[in-house]
Design brief:
348 residues; alpha/beta; six-stranded parallel sheet; six-stranded mixed sheet; 12 strands; 15% strand; elongated
């Protein structure tokens, strides 16, 4: 049987094709009775909207790209699920691209992969610089995730500095004085790790604890093996922290393993907090305390901002009074989730 077309729905409902189109597009000026009749006909005939055709008539493909550094990092996998769900609500399809935190790959994504098959891009950059992002003329509409590299771009993030300060403050409040920042960066910069390290340092200063750069532990990746190696090396060298602020949950889970293998009690001897609230932390032994970003809200705001940019005729949303670009910098909520890895011995 041939697939029903819009004219078949119109004939079945006894209305014009234009009326059917108005109902499909949810236009306001259609009576409730007509809307009900058309929807009944759509259901009875099994008519399906041709989304590709609808997008192409508007000069779009209906495809957006989500570009993340690594898909097998649980945070990005969970974020991708939320982005896909939000996009589906808006009849958009998501192309997921892994950049590998490589500048050339991130630049290619920013340029729309050298073609016009994506309407817009949600990009989590790690290797790009502010200069890379400054001139985006001719590029697809883009929303950035993570730390803000360029003030002229739409941007969604949590308050990473504030969240790290809150987590470190909690560890200090437990009486912990030797707090390591695993994955921290002892240098100025605009990245997420730098922001979280600034929050760590701010909490130390608030508590009157002298900052020791040797307690900021760099890593070569933000994966579990890197966290395990870093902590095992420190323990082997005789470093005895009483708390770890790990800059993501993968590092924290690796750290928990190394502490276990060296017979260190968590949280009795060492309290551990991570970032991201990934599923694995809820099943580790002990379960992992963490900073939980509202990933669903990050996805929702990012897709909303991107769709708004796409729908603007010139890709720029103008300020109603000044007529200039009005990029959006949205900070999404986070919360500190306390589990077994910190709920132990209070040393005060």
């Amino acid at each position: 049987m041939a697939r029903p077309r819009i004219k078949d729905v119109a004939r079945h409902a006894g209305v014009s094709e234009k009326t059917v189109s108005n109902v499909i597009n949810d236009y306001a000026h259609v009576s409730d009775r007509t809307r009900r009749v058309v929807r009944d006909s759509i259901e009875q005939l099994g008519y399906r909207v041709n989304l590709a055709g609808r997008h192409l008539r508007k000069g779009r493909t209906g495809i957006i790209a989500l570009v993340v550094p690594e898909l097998d990092i649980p945070y990005f996998a969970e974020l991708a699920r939320h982005v896909i769900r939000e996009a589906e609500e808006r009849s958009l399809t998501v192309l997921i691209h892994q950049s590998g935190a490589d500048r050339a790959h991130e630049l290619a994504a920013l340029a729309g992969f050298g073609s016009t098959f994506v309407d817009g891009i949600i990009l989590s950059p790690l290797a790009l610089t502010a200069d890379d992002l400054r001139d985006r003329s001719g590029f697809p509409p883009t929303v950035l995730l993570g730390e803000l590299l360029e003030e002229g771009a739409d941007h969604v993030a949590i308050d990473n500095e504030g969240a790290a300060r809150e987590a470190t403050r909690h560890l200090i409040g437990l009486g912990r004085r030797t707090v390591l920042a695993v994955g921290g960066v002892d240098a100025p910069g605009l990245g997420t790790a730098e922001a979280r390290t600034r929050g760590y340092r701010a909490a130390l200063a608030e508590a009157g604890i002298a900052y020791d750069p040797s307690l900021v532990i760099p890593v070569d990746s933000f994966r579990m093996p890197a966290g395990a190696r870093a902590v095992a090396r420190l323990l082997h060298d005789g470093v005895r922290p009483d708390a770890l602020l790990c800059l993501n949950d993968q590092l924290a889970l690796g750290a928990l393993r190394a502490l276990h293998e060296h017979g260190v009690d968590v949280p009795g001897e060492v309290a551990v907090i991570g970032f991201d609230d990934v599923e694995g932390g809820r099943f580790s032994v002990p379960t992992l305390s963490t900073v939980a970003p509202d990933k669903a809200a990050v996805a929702k705001v990012a897709v909303e901002l991107l769709q708004r940019r796409i729908e603007d005729a010139d890709g720029v949303r103008a300020d109603a009074e000044s007529g200039v670009q009005s990029p959006q910098d949205r900070i999404v909520a986070h919360r500190l989730v306390l589990r077994e890895s910190t709920e132990g011995h209070d040393r005060r």
